[in-house]
Design a protein that fits this description.
Blueprint: E1 8-11, E2 15-19, E3 26-30, H1 38-41, E4 43-47, E5 50-54, H2 57-69, H3 75-91, H4 101-113
Antiparallel strand pairs: 1-2, 2-3, 4-5
Helix pairs in contact: 2-3
């Protein structure tokens, strides 16, 4: 459907990336089976002037947690996932209950010092 709407797409092993014409909008659609249940909870939203389905906050965090815990993922990618989890946890402390205990504790301690 993205191609029909004029998006330029690139297919990768576990995802399809789409770029909107004349826009800063970049969409990444994962094809991994584990993420398919996220579709049921996704909501329509306006992103940079385009209506798209957006994963719920909890599902975004869950996807990051899976990526962070994947021992086959490059270290630099896992560290980026960790940083994304830290940012999410700082802004949405209720998510910390989903996190590995050591990461959740680091974020809690850091929040107390600021």
């Amino acid at each position: 459907r993205l191609k029909e709407d004029g998006f330029k797409t690139e297919e990768h092993a576990h995802s399809v990336n789409a770029t909107a014409p004349e826009s800063e909008l970049r969409i990444q659609c994962t094809t991994d089976e584990g993420y398919q249940t996220f579709l049921d909870r996704a909501q329509d939203d306006d992103v940079l002037g385009t209506r798209v389905r957006v994963a719920s906050l909890i599902d975004v965090a869950q996807g990051k947690l899976w990526a962070y815990a994947d021992p086959h993922r490059r270290l630099s990618k896992r560290k980026k996932d960790e940083l994304d989890l830290v940012r999410l946890g700082e802004h949405y402390p209720d998510l910390l209950s989903l996190y590995p205990p050591e990461l959740a504790e680091q974020i809690r301690r850091s929040s107390l010092n600021n």
